[in-house]
Write a structure and sequence with these properties.
Thrombin, subunit H, alpha+beta, 22 strands, about 20% helix, 6-stranded antiparallel β-barrel
Length: about 375
């Protein structure tokens, strides 16, 4: 059977061949680009790094504030007596809190509750160098204390002192401290509120306190609160926290408190000069009463302002013994224009005054209202 010869192979048109070459070249270029960027992966998994670019102005400001202030922030350890497994009191050194270098004489500011009841104190500077410290003085009513280390002035860096009376809610703030022993920790936030009042150890009221949402935790106490200019505007001192049903302390609710710089500026010079703060008072011990509104004069101290004003107490001193005074004690119901419902009301009303100020006490004496002027004395 006759057969036809096989057809000649077709040849691509010149235009088609050019298109295929162009496509192959483009594919090769695409693969090369992917490989050069590391997107194809490799045996070592290496990838190129994308440039960061400039930091934002706000970030640069935060970094500058921290770098300028960090050398003035110290870590404080204290030695206290604790019971061991055998019931013996043994000295134990533990991290307690934070402090700030006040001047080139080695004075260090912290909270009173950080150093209370301690036998010894050790301060660690920002570079890890340790110094034994001595207690210069304390102001329990302000929850402030002053330590001192013997260090060369060139090793001591201070932070600029600002003011707190002109703060505004919403201003940015920065806290530096040693929370949970984690040294040189920076947290940020804002001024959340002003003119708060908190209780210091002993029940005294601290006025004008700054509230902030910058994270403040155990170990931050005594550290600086700074404004966006890097100035010291407060001393971090307390957090607001709730207590769980098991009695364990819960986490901070984002509410921290700082003693205002204006208070600090008035207290520290007195501690340096006198080792104490002049605290105004009557020189009388007061008590709350049951069924009555006011602060009952319980004991009038000999030689006190209260004795000079002839206040009447329920008890009096007879040598080293307390005996009945034999008179009905006075009940203080107001100090100046401030009503007094409890003993703490009286303490609060006096805390904003100065030694030497004369106040008017409104009393109930033997069923009648009476006013008596009293010149306040130093209670320390």
């Amino acid at each position: 059977m006759p057969t036809s010869p096989p057809p000649a192979p077709s040849r691509p048109a010149p235009g088609t061949l050019l298109s295929l070459v162009t496509l192959a070249a483009a594919a090769a270029l695409f693969v090369f680009v992917l490989w050069s960027r590391g997107d194809l992966g490799g045996s070592d998994g290496a990838r190129s790094v994308i440039a960061r670019g400039d930091l934002a102005p706000d970030e640069l400001n935060t970094i500058e504030i921290f770098e300028n202030a960090r050398r003035s922030v110290v870590f404080i350890e204290v030695t206290r007596l604790e019971r061991d497994n055998l019931g013996r009191n043994v000295p134990v050194r533990r991290g307690a809190g934070t402090g700030m270098i006040w001047d080139d004489l080695g004075h260090v500011v912290t909270n009173y509750h950080v150093v209370a009841d301690a036998l010894a104190y050790r301060i660690t500077l920002w570079d890890g160098v340790h110094y034994d410290a001595e207690l210069v003085g304390s102001a329990v009513a302000n929850d402030l204390a002053l330590l001192r280390i013997d260090a060369a002035p060139h090793r001591l860096s201070t932070v600029g002192l600002g003011t707190s009376h002109d703060l505004r809610v919403g201003q940015k703030v920065f806290a530096i401290g040693n929370p949970f022993g984690l040294d040189q920790t920076l947290t940020t936030g804002v001024v959340s509120a002003l003119e708060r009042a908190i209780r210091a150890p002993g029940g005294h009221l601290i006025h004008g306190v700054i509230q902030t949402d910058a994270a403040i935790n155990p170990g931050n106490s005594g550290g600086p609160l700074l404004d966006s200019a890097g100035r010291l505007i407060g001393v971090n001192t307390q957090i607001y926290s709730t207590v769980s049903s098991t009695g364990a302390q819960a986490q901070s609710a984002g509410i921290g408190f700082a003693i205002p710089a204006d208070t600090l500026g008035g207290v520290v010079p007195q501690l340096i000069q006198h080792g104490k703060v002049m605290r105004p008072g009557l020189g009388a011990r007061l008590r709350d009463t049951i069924g009555s509104v006011g602060a009952l004069v319980w004991i009038v101290e000999p030689g006190s302002a209260a004795e000079a004003a002839e206040l009447r107490g329920a008890l009096r001193w007879a040598g080293s013994d307390l005996v009945s005074s034999g008179v009905q004690p006075d009940l203080i119901v107001a100090i100046g224009d401030t009503p007094v419902r409890t003993r703490l009301d009286a303490v609060d009303a006096l805390s904003g005054l100065q030694v030497g100020d004369t106040v008017t006490l409104v009393l109930e004496r033997e069923g009648r209202s009476q006013t008596i002027p009293v010149t306040l004395q130093d209670l320390e």
